[in-house]
UniProtKB/TrEMBL annotation:
Transmembrane segments: none annotated. Its EC number is 3.6.1.-. It comes from the Bacteria. Zn(2+) binds at residues 245, 250, 252, 258. It is found in: Cytoplasm. This is Small ribosomal subunit biogenesis GTPase RsgA. Keywords: Cytoplasm, GTP-binding, Hydrolase, Metal-binding, Nucleotide-binding, Ribosome biogenesis, RNA-binding, rRNA-binding, Zinc. It is an enzyme of class 3 (hydrolase). It comes from Thalassobacillus devorans. Residues 63-221 form the CP-type G domain. Its cofactor is Zn(2+). GTP binds at residues 112-115, 164-172. The keyword Iron-sulfur does not apply.
Length: 291
């Protein structure tokens, strides 16, 4: 049986890429019975008499799976934020990073609209915080050529999702990376200070030797499925030293002899990141149970 990867799902059809060709397939009835929905990014076996009439027969085990956008086997999230219009928001960036870490996806941080010395100065201290953790950070401006080369190197051989709030330039960046895409972009609505959603279905595009999902991003930024003991694992700088805490399962809040709190006091861990961690912890601890 041929194997391939679903690169687009639309109106009940799954478009499977295999050996340079794309096959339009339907899912087998058994998926419905088992309540399984094939996802973009799935590795599948299929059968097809021609490129218009095929059937997805089975789905390989997934490494990870996102609900919004619905996509599987993601290697990397390009998290895009901007220096201005909308203003850089480190709390929102950390929220994205936690969601990405929780799904065991590698983050790549891209900060757009770093156009003048004022923006560069404002962003440089944040850039230092994230690079110290080990996250790659790429700054883009109107002169984007060098930054585009850097981004392309990170895309090769990976499935990447693009995430970030509206208006930061996600579609513009994808169009710069591949002008054949012509993804629709909307100017920021002045009254709302945010862009309108222009992206509808999930589709993987071949860009720079990798596959990039042009998706509506993470439409839910809530920590509905994250438990309090999982949150510290989503902060790599905590993860590295939490074995030094006195108590196993330390939540790094009020516990004595906490290595993370000591590292914050010593300036080894960013106080800003730690404050965001406490906010997220509070949010998880006080959320209403779902039934």
């Amino acid at each position: 049986m041929p194997v391939g990867k679903i690169i687009k799902a639309l109106s009940g059809f799954y478009y499977v890429y295999s050996e340079g060709e794309v096959y339009q397939c339907r899912g087998r009835g058994v998926f419905r019975k088992q309540k399984i929905t094939p996802l973009v990014g799935d590795e599948v076996t299929f059968e097809a008499e021609n490129q218009q009439e095929g059937y997805v027969l089975s789905i390989e085990d997934r490494r990870n799976e996102l609900v919004r956008p619905p996509i599987a086997n993601v290697d990397q999230a390009l998290i895009m934020t901007s220096a201005k219009n909308p203003d850089f928001n480190p709390l929102l960036l950390d929220r994205f990073l936690v969601l990405v870490e929780a799904n065991r996806i590698e983050p790549l941080i891209v900060i757009s609209k770093v156009d003048g010395p004022k923006e560069k100065e404002k962003i440089s201290s944040f850039q230092a915080i994230y690079e110290k953790i080990g996250y790659p950070v790429i700054l883009t401006s109107k002169e984007t050529d060098m930054a585009l080369d850097q981004i392309e190197k990170h895309l090769a051989d990976k499935i990447t999702v693009v995430a970030g709030q509206s208006g930061v330039g996600k579609s513009t960046l994808l169009n710069h990376l591949d002008s054949a895409l012509s993804i629709e972009t909307n100017e920021i609505s002045e009254s709302l200070g945010r862009g309108k959603h222009t992206t509808r279905h999930v589709e993987l595009f071949e860009i720079a030797g990798g596959l990039v999902a042009d998706t509506p991003g993470f439409s839910s930024l809530e920590f509905q499925d994250l438990e309090e003991d999982q949150l510290p694992e989503c902060f790599p700088e905590f993860r590295e030293i939490q074995h030094l805490c006195k108590f196993r399962g330390c939540l790094h809040k009020k516990e004595p002899k906490c290595a993370v709190k000591a590292a914050v006091d010593d300036g080894e861990i960013s106080g800003l990141r730690y404050d965001h961690y406490l906010q997220f912890l509070e949010e998880i601890q006080t959320r209403k149970p779902r039934y």
